[in-house]
Structure formats: structure tokens, C-alpha cells
Amino acid sequence: MNDFTRAAVGLFAVIAAPGGLGGFAAFAPAAISARLRLVIGVMGLTFAALALAALLSDPVLDWLDVSAENFQLAAGAVMLPLALRLLWWGEQGMPSASLPFWRALSLVFGPVPVVVMLSYSARFGTGTALGAAGVALLVSGGLLLAGGWIAARLGAAGCSLLGRFNGALIVVLAVELMLDGIHSV
Amino acid sequence: MLSKSLLLSVVAWVAFGAALRVGVVPPESCGKTDAASLDAAARAAIDWITRNQKPDGSYVYLYYIDTDTVPNEYNLVRHAGVTMVLYQAAGHYEDEHILLAADAGLGWMLQNLVSRHGWSAPVLGDEDAILGSAALMTVGLAERRLVVGDEQYDGLMRELGRFMLALQRDDGGFDVAWDLRNDAPVKGQTSRYYPGESLWALALLAQAFPGEGWDVAAGKALDFLVTARDKQENVSFPPLTDQWLAYGLAEIPHNSLTDDQLAYARRLAARFGLFVRSESQRQGGKLGRLVRGREARGAGLGTWVEALGSLWRLASTDERFADLKPKLEERLVCSAGILAARQTGEDAAAKSGSPGLVQGAWFARGETRMDDQQHSISGLLYTLDALEGSAQRAPAAPVLPAP
């Protein structure tokens, strides 16, 4: 797996759209145009925030006095609570915001993607991390758009299984990130 | 207004982040990384050794600062190592005073030399002839040869080399000593570090005397070290952090390492890098000790600097390893800076019972041993060379007349 693919898979996993499918389908507007606007808005804002994290990776790590390799250990650790939640419940927590936009945003965006983006940008380079974030968000957005359709066909058990698969993927990627930090100069 | 659940989520993340900051990623500090500080640290440590050298050429081995005592202990391998580093320092600083101290240390070993079957080795008292002592004495003589350019000890270097060959097994590894009473190799014992020391010595013999076959023995030793040593020594988390192997890797002819040997060198670089990153997070104080453990002693941290300096040289000369050069240099300078910052200075020395045994030394749990200074000096000199962009053993041509 090359750096770009590794970063794209990692960001897709921590954005955790598969684990948020059921929740998103529950409050997303039924009309496809409104749903499209919602997903584009959420993904656009998430990309902007992740891009900022990528661009600020070096200054942030300098400010923290932490090497990129040591930061990978922390990033891996930050991924684990999300992974455990998905493995245990099969879905992300239901956001409490009242407006659909903020509910959708809090499903896909939080400290975990930001920390992973900081780490990937330092590890793979800003360009690679940005490109990978774009791909991960496109795929995640498509998944959320089709969330209602997928949830209807998979049922609650299928969605839960998908969420648990998402959690397992995060565990694997977290361990890989930490091991790479340990095995780097 | 934030909802209660969002507030709880924020509080949980802040607490989690704080725990990570303390336990996983505390701030890293590299101490005094400027060249002037590293140079001053090296000079102060060299002064510690030369100031505390005895008239017979031996050195103060161990000093306890709390009781202001010098125990009556000695170690021949470490004597050879300290003498070797004095020759390195004499060449680096082109300093006749240091060269004289090194020659006094060499004289002590010459008085304790045993010769049999065409080989020679230094021996302490009624001990066996130990592989590591002969290896480091050889390295010292190779360094001396660079500094003064004379050939008066070439014969002795070859005799020491033949001692190593007499102990080398078919698999490239080594028996650890020669039993002088039974006049045979000591069987059934192994050493973690003597094989690496021997590799370095054999590689330098191959450089000094090309065409005499020393490179073949060095190659066998290197193969053993990268394929079998860690298993033989039951190393729990290989690779063994062996700076002697790193020295040897840097002296093997350029671009002649196999892919397996280079892969091992990469693992070695990563291990030393991890150690330095972890050490740079140790901030002292009770909380720091509780979370990150005690600071490494000078001899320990010094060996990491030596290894990183050697691997930096390898990265400078073998293009297949060159991608690691920037990170190696970063870790090298950081580890050397930590050394410089932890060295005991003039002020602390003045408050002690024996300032001459304190200033310029590295103490751990109240003691300093001569190899705390030895490994630290060697690492600092390699770092200074790296900062000047020099990847070769120095000096390139003799700089001092033979005493």
C-alpha cells in the first residue's frame, strides 16, 4: 500500500461514515437536493478544517515540542476510543445538536480526524495528506448520500456490523501508525 | 449555548489529551545543541580523563561523588576503550598533550601484553586474554596510525588481529577469550558486544593493510552479527543496540553492504532514534521520573550518540541509506545536546569534595565510570564531524609527530 492509499484509508476510517450511516439516515432530509446540499456543506467544511490542520502540522508539532514520530504514538492512542466505541456499539454516538447541519458535522468531524491529519501531514507530506483527505471525504460523502438507501437494505443489524467493521479498521490503522512511530528514526 | 453532552464530550477530550501529553508525548528537549557547547563538553570530558590519569598510564575507573571515594576496581576492556577515544580526540583536536596521555594508556597495555602462537593480546592480572580488549586496543592503534602516520605498531596491530582470528568461529562469531592456563579458546561463553568491537577492529585492519585478508574476517563477523547474534544472545527485542556494530558498518567499504545488512542497519537506526526521542522526553523531577523513568547514564546515552554518528557516516557514503541522513542528523545532534546539558559543570564541581573528579563527568545515581566519559566523548566528536559535514575518519593526513 502506498503512502497516498494508506492516508486515504486512514482518514476514511476516522471520518467514520460507515459508523454514522444509521444516525445520518435518521435525521437527514428526505429530498435528495437538500441532502446533497447538506453533505456538500459538511464535507466542504470538514475538508477546510483538515486542510488547515495539514498546513499547520509542522508549526503545531514545533509548538508542542514533539517530533512527528512521537506524535504518531499519540495519534494512534487518540484513534482508539473512537474505534472501541464503534466496536462496542456498532455506531457513533448520536449527536445532540438540533440543526441537521451541526448534527451531520459532528458525525464526521472531531478531534480524531484532526489529530490523524496532523500526523499524516507530518508523515506523508502536506500534499499527499490533502489529496488523501479529499478522496476520503468524497467517498464518505457518497456513502452518507446513499445512507438512507443503504440503511434500508442492510437493516439495523447490517448497519451495526458495518460500524463494527469501521471500528476494527481504525484499530488496525492505529496500531500501524504507532508501530511506524516506534520503527522510525 | 453548549449542550450538556457536548460539554461533557469536550471535558473528556481535554482530560484525555492532558493524559496523553503527560504519559505519551511530553515535550522533547535536546539540551545544548550548538557546536560550541558540544565542543566544550567534549573538551571538558577529555580533561577529566587526562587529569585523572595515573602515572602508570591507567585511569580513574570509578568515582562515587556522595562519599568522595575511588573504589579499587578496574576493567581492561574499558581501559582500551578510553585509550582509543584519547587517540580519536588527539586527531580531532590535533593536540599533542592528549596524544601523550593516549600513549601512556597504550604503554600500560604494552606492559600487560601476552604473546603466543603469533598473536598478542593485553591481559589484566591472571585473567584470560579477552577478545574485547584486543579489539579496542587495535582500534586505538588504528586511530593512532591516522594521527601520527608512523608504522611502529603495525606489527602489533597484525598480532592483535591474529588474536581475533584465533577466536573467530566458522560461523563468523567469536569465542570470548583465550584461556591462558589451558592455552585454548574459552568455550561455552558468549558476549553481546565483543563481536561488534571485533568487527570494527577487523574493518580498520582491512583499511590499514589492504590485501591481507582482514576484510574476509570482517565480512564473516558482519554476517554473524546481522543474522545470528541476536538469537544467540536471546535479545528480547532485536536488534541489540550495539554501537560497535554501527561503527563497523560505517567502516565497511562503501556500497558493499548487502541488502540484508542494510536492512539491519535501518532497524538499528530506528532503535537508536526511538531511544533518543524517548530520552529527550525525560525532563527530570519527580513526575518526569515517575512517568518516563530515570535518565540514561552517560555511558548509555553516549553509545547512542556514537551509533547515530556512525550510521550518519554510513548514510553519507552509501546512497541506499542516504534517505535516513536528515533524521539521523537530527537525532544525533539532539542526543549530543542532551549529553552536553547533563554534563557536570564547574559550579557543581566546586561544591564537591574533589572538583577534579567531578567537573566534565557524567554522573548517574552518584557515580561516574570512565566509560561514561569515553562513550560521550566519542559520540560528541562524531557529532562535531557531522556538523562539519565530515563523514570520514579524521584526520585525513597525519597531524602530529610521533612522540
Record field, number of beta strands of chain B:
7
Strand content of chain A: under 5%
What is the overall pLDDT average of chain B?
94
Distance between the termini of chain B: 83 Å
Strand content of chain B: 5-15%
**Multimerization state:** heterodimer
What's the total helix number of chain A? Answer: 9
Low-confidence stretches of chain A: none
Structural class of chain A: mainly alpha
Structural summary, described in words:
The complex is a heterodimer of chains A (185) and B (403). Helices cover 85% and strands 0% of the residues of chain A. With 185 residues, chain A is mainly α. The longest helix of chain A is centred in the last third of the chain and has 36 residues, at 147-182. Chain B is mostly helical and 403 residues long. Chain B is 59% helix and 5% strand. Chain B contains 17 helices and seven strands. Chain B has helices at residues 4-23, 35-51, 76-93, 96-111, 131-148, 154-167, 194-208, 214-227, 229-232, 243-251, 259-279, 285-292, 298-317, 325-342, 346-350, 355-358, 370-387; strands at residues 62-64, 113-116, 119-122, 129-130, 177-179, 184-185, 367-369. In chain B, helix 7 runs parallel beside helix 10 (243-251). At the A-B interface, helix 5 of A face helix 1, helix 11 and helix 14 of B.
